[in-house]
Every structure is written in C-alpha cells, then in structure tokens.
Amino acid sequence: MxxxxxxxxxxxxxxxxxxxxxxxxxxxxxxxxxxSVSLKxxxxxxxxxxxxxxxxxxxEIEEIELVHPLSYIDRIKSMSAAxxxxxxxxxxxxxxxxxxxxxxxxxVIESVEGCFKSDFKYSFCMVRPPGHxxxxxxxxxxxxxxxxxxxxxxxxxxGKANKVLVVDWDAxxxxxxxxxxxEDPRVLYTSIxxxxxxxxxxxxxxxxxxxxxxxxxxxxxxxGTGEAHYIEAFERVIIPAGRRxxxxxxxxxxxxxxxxADLLCSMRLVDSSFSKMTKMLASLAREYSSDRLIIVxxxxxxxxxxxxxxxxxxxxxxxxxxxxxxxxxxxxAHSELASQVINKAVSQQGIL
Length: 352
What we know:
The structure is a single chain. The chain is an alpha/beta fold. The protein has helices at residues 18-21, 33-44, 61-64, 70-81, 97-116, 147-157, 175-180, 227-245, 271-288, 303-317, 335-349; strands at residues 11-14, 52-54, 85-86, 92-93, 122-125, 164-168, 187-194, 216-221, 249-254, 293-297. Strands 2-1-5-10-9-6-7-8 form an eight-stranded parallel beta sheet, sandwiched between helices. Helix 5 crosses helix 6 and helix 9 (271-288) runs parallel beside helix 10. It is globular. It starts with 10 loop residues before the first strand and ends with a helix. Mean pLDDT is 96; it is low at 1-8.
C-alpha cells in the first residue's frame, strides 16, 4: 500500500504493514489476516480508489502517557524487545507488538490532527492490536494500548475538542474505554454489546461516577439480538443522546464480531447493518461535529464476514451503495428482552 495517495475523496484510510507483524500465535482469532483480507475486499470493490491511503506516524511516548503510565508502556517495550510473552491467557506480545501498538495509537492521533485541520472528513484506522479492553495499567482481551481512549484524550488535552462522543458497537463491552472516562463529563461513552459476556462489564447500572455520572450509556443486549434492535437503539438512544451532548468529534470502536457468522460472539447483524449504523453516525457528525468521524478497528473474527462489513462501513462513508454479501437481516432471538434494554436506556437518559 502506498504511504500517501492523494485523491479527491474525504476519507483517510490508515494502515501500515507493521500491524500484520504483531503476532498472536497459531490459532489465535485476532490474527494478521484480518487486515489483509479486508484490504483485498476493499480493492475488489474499488473502494481503495475512494480513500486517501496513509501510513501513520508512531505515537510519542508522551501521547501514550495521556492514558497509560510509563511503567506499563515500558513493560510492553521490554517484552517486545525480549521476544514477546503474554499479558494474560488471551493477550499476546511479540517482537513487533510495541512498534505496532505505537503506530496503532499514532493512526488515531493523526486522524484527530487531520480532521481538525480539514485534511479529510472521515478516517478509518485499520489497525492492530485493538484497544478498547485495555485499562490504564493493564492490557487484556487482545488489547495493548487503548487506541480510541488515547485519541479522545489527545483531542481534549490538545484543546482541539471540548466534548467527545465514543460509540462502541463491538460485541464485547469496551471496559477499558469506559473505565478510563468513567468520571469525565467531557466524554460520552456509549456501547452496544452482548451481555452477559466477556469481559463481564457493561450493565445498565454502569452510568458513570462523580462528575461523569450519566455520561456512560450501556445497551447490554442478549445473545441473538439482530439489526432491528440495533437500529432502534441508535434511533431512540444513541443519536438523541449524541445530539443533546453536541460533541466536537465522534469516535467509533468498530468491532465486527456482532456479525451473525462471527466465531466468538452470538449476535445477528449482517454486513449491511454496519452501513446503516455508519450512515447514522456520519449524519450526526455532519450536523454537530463538522463531519469529524474517526472509525477505529477493534474485533471481528470471521475473516470474510469482517471484510465485507468493513467494505460496507467505508462504502457508507464514501456514499457508495455496495451490494450486501449477506442474507437479509435476521430477527432477534429474544426480542422482548432487547426491547426492555432500549426502553430502560431511554428512561435513564430522559430521552423522549
């Protein structure tokens, strides 16, 4: 991939080959092929012609320290230099992990810089390792540095933004991002996820703390929830809450493991579901945030399902109607429970 290929579109795609050199070991679901298969699908649909391809810079240590203490950063650096190891049973560090993690965070930071300078409207950060499970002092759930949290904190501390909206549609709850901003009213964190499920957080009683109370919105859907309830949650909860919050910039933790064919999760979205959600967030960004929308890759473990879902996401940003690879949207297995979650969230937020 070329480092920079200027085109007339308003989408930046951040990618670097180092991301594929972050090795998680044989049989691990979070593997390098997730990126290569997605890039191939983008090329086959000619969507690569609709984006500006960029290789991100490394994040500075001081920028990573906006979220993670130096002691933790040095631990990842040392583990990589020593040939790798494991932070827990699921979270691998290899020789190239430290460099990949610096560039993954750098992609999000550079996205913030670029959209505030109007270099582009939207960005898609096709990065590894993912980030939304990473706590301030501990990596977990395949995640090393919390890329979205670093980008959001950078936007705030650099004075570029006063308020940040984070929408997490990964099927796993983004416990790290929630924890980092749990007391911060400058960040509205919203998550739709399978519950109960890994990592065990994300109940509707978790709404923030102190000054941040009310600035965390969790939609813990039962396994088997389909597109109709996701879209209803966007229409009745996430979009109204976003409008009321009036953010300066939007981030998406874009996991594709809520696709019905995913290997780890049990939700029922199809590839075109992600196009619909993306369009709704792009409309919100256009209305309130001068089109500043940054989408950051998290999970997604069926290679074909993820690739086609990424195509639908970027196609929505490019205003391209890409035919769905999937069957028609599936209904929810536990419709009544899913509706109860939405109704409770509406009540909690006072959204009419």
